[in-house]
Amino acid sequence: MVRILPQSKSAAINPLKSSQPLGAAFAFLGVDGAVPLFHGSQGCTSFALVLFVRHFKEAIPLQTTAMDEVATILGGADHLEQAILNLKTRAKPRLIGICTTALAETRGEDFVGDLAKIKLEHAEELAGTVVVLTKTPDFDGAIEEGWAKAVTAMIEAITQTGERARQSRKVAILPGWNLTVADIEHLREMVESFGLMPVILPDVSGSLDGTVPDDRWVPTTYGGTSVEGIRELGTAAQCIAIGEHMRRPAEVLQTLTGVPYVLFQSLTGLNAVDRFVSLLSAISGAPAPTKVRRRRAQLQDALLDGHFHFGGKKIAIASEPDQLYQLATFFTGMGAEITAVVTTTSTSKILEKVPAEAIQVGDLGDLESLGDGADLLVTHSHGRQAAARLGIPMMRVGFPVFDRLGSQHKLTILYQGTRDLIFEVANIFQSDPLAPSPWALDPFRSQTDTDKKSQRLARGDRTQATSAGLPADKNPL
């Protein structure tokens, strides 16, 4: 059984996690005509905005109530009211998603009461705009929890309750935060290929896919799930949740509307995708289309081609719990070994199923300490310095990825996404100068850990020298 080791440091060294309000804002960005609103200081919003812009390379409609010193002491209800009315007047959004921050939460404000009063007093002015509140203090949870809370809040506030007439071919899909724009787009295509009609909440593939509106500036999101689509979720015949953190939103939808749900903890890997395809066949009453069967055959061939490069490799991963499970099961399924694992929280039940001996709740400093000797470092862009110091190749996943283009368009799920992951990782291993070495292939000669470390450090020096524009043999380090 995996051991979950609690965080023991009083300060984070190169933080791994992103804040809970950022995760909630991320989910609101998957709704058409939406504006996420941070209830807190300008600094709280600016930090999240920088990460969003660097990751997606797009303009992000993120706003703030801009609480100052007076509001921090006397209360921020006035700031919240003014921000909502200003947004309604200037942007005319269909949805305003309020994400509370640590500043307002620590003060202990009555957000629910304040918002109810604002809606009552300005009912006519706010007509046509839904305002949803999500309590997401920075000091608790991370991006995963914030995303799930925002989806739950939207279902509770917008979805029409009670038993409804079901549409037999309509499927509600609640994707986890770790699915990329390309993942969700590919997921929709897969479901539609069975003749089904998916309603995806949130749908970042429509709002963060890099398209630009024609000849106009749009102050809100311009794509994603419609508010009307959220309101009519109760007419779906089936709900499919992806990721353990989406269990709660699926349960709330079932409680409010009676729509049954099925939870997939991952859609990466042959067995997981086979189960998903079987479910779609059962719902639609139709066999898997020829295109889907062909992609499965391509994955089988990729498994045969790629497993030679994975066998015995040591992997160090740092990520949120559900993405951690997705990647760890992928690597172990290919024959690799998970030797170092770091995550953001100990509360997720999925951690008990991660194929590792121990999981450290911590930061990227912990990953650097535990990952020495690994063959591959897997985390987001903030881990690049650790990879360079250790001389270990790095695979960028999750959020944020700001030093590479197109991360949001990388497939990681279903048959095609799993195939692409195999090729990506195998190519990283093949491009590593240390893999394989002649002594590693010689059964009568073993290379010591010291030899390996010295070679990795030497390679790290060469990498730093090259990045500085110096010849490798003249590296000042």
From TrEMBL:
UniProt-listed PROSITE patterns: NITROGENASE_1_1
This protein's UniProt keywords: Nitrogen fixation, Plasmid
Compositionally biased intervals (Basic and acidic residues): 448-462
InterPro entries per UniProt: ChlB/BchB/BchZ, Nase/OxRdtase_comp1, Nase_comp1_CS, Nase_Mo-Fe_CF
Pathway involvement of the protein, from the record: Cofactor biosynthesis; Fe-Mo cofactor biosynthesis
Annotated region described as Disordered, given as residue ranges: 439-477
Domain Nitrogenase/oxidoreductase component per the UniProt entry, residue ranges: 19-429
Domain of life, per lineage: Bacteria
Pfam families: Oxidored_nitro (PF00148)
Biological role stated in the UniProt entry: This protein may play a role in the biosynthesis of the prosthetic group of nitrogenase (FeMo cofactor).
Family, as annotated: Belongs to the NifD/NifK/NifE/NifN family.
NCBIfam families: nifN
PANTHER family: LIGHT-INDEPENDENT PROTOCHLOROPHYLLIDE REDUCTASE SUBUNIT B
The protein's name: Nitrogenase iron-molybdenum cofactor biosynthesis protein NifN
